[in-house]
Design goal:
The chain is mainly α and 232 residues long. It folds into three domains: 109 residues, Multidrug-efflux Transporter Regulator, Chain: A, Domain 2 (Orthogonal Bundle); 49 residues, no CATH class; 50 residues. The protein is 56% helix and 2% strand. It is built from nine helices and two strands; from the N terminus they run H-H-E-E-H-H-H-H-H-H-H. Strand 1 and strand 2 form a beta hairpin.
């Protein structure tokens, strides 16, 4: 996919989409998207829809693509909103920003993000074996099901490469335990916000969860990079 470009400043993109139309277009890719989340992202200055004389929000196609990029960065990279906003500011200024750790973002596809692969299709596309998939399921690295999405495909492809280096799924059982411990930390941090059941609080809780997950990822990546220096 091509490098991400900023869709927010496209010329000639007249606002025409209502909140309902935006949800209809993006909900298949981002099921947790809601009107309250759209308003929350606007409050954080990540999107700037136009307003009609009556105060109704209207989104242009460029707004839609900027929103798609924001949501993909949240979902795929667990980035806090302040990092995403800085990234978008750099894009708007014509720069080519990268994420913490040096990873570049690619523009999300206009097509549905997650496919539904059968077990056989998953194994074939990943270049794996049936035994490797079963070992991954046994190690709780992939959840067993009738169909699998792109995330399972990415994990299985990585396991194929790791296997070539002698690393088997059974060696990675601790990853699941570590993920569960991180989830416990996130849930504990969310308790004050989660007690409030209004839509705005739910949106803030979801964003806070992503921010915490993103910060944990930064710490984890730093520890790994630091440990790798000892192998040089």
């Amino acid at each position: 996919m091509a490098p991400a470009t900023s869709p927010a400043r496209a010329s000639g993109a007249s606002p025409q989409l209502s909140i309902g139309q935006v949800l209809a277009r993006l909900s298949p890719e981002f099921p947790d998207l809601s009107p309250s989340k759209l308003r929350f992202l606007e409050e954080r200055r990540l999107i700037s829809p136009a307003r009609t004389g009556s105060g109704y929000r209207k989104f242009s196609v460029a707004d839609l693509e900027r929103l798609r990029l924001v949501l993909a960065m949240q979902r795929d990279h667990y980035l806090p909103l302040k990092v995403i906003r800085s990234y978008l500011d750099d894009l708007d200024a014509g720069r080519e920003p990268v994420l913490p750790g040096g990873q570049q973002v690619t523009a999300p596809s206009m097509l549905p993000v997650d496919r539904r692969l059968t077990r056989e299709e998953l194994i074939k596309e990943a270049g794996a074996t049936s035994l490797l998939l079963q070992d991954a399921i046994s190690a709780s690295l992939i959840v067993a099901g009738d169909h699998y999405g792109d995330e399972a495909l990415a994990v299985l492809r990585s396991l194929v490469e790791l296997q070539r280096s002698g690393i088997e799924p059974r060696h990675l059982r601790g990853f699941r335990a570590a993920a569960e411990r991180e989830l416990g930390l996130i849930e504990s941090a969310l308790i004050p916000v989660s007690r409030r059941k209004d839509a705005s609080s739910r949106a803030k809780a979801a964003e806070l969860a992503r921010e915490i997950a993103g910060q944990l990822e930064v710490v984890r990546s730093s520890l790994i990079r630091s440990a790798l220096t000892r192998l040089r």
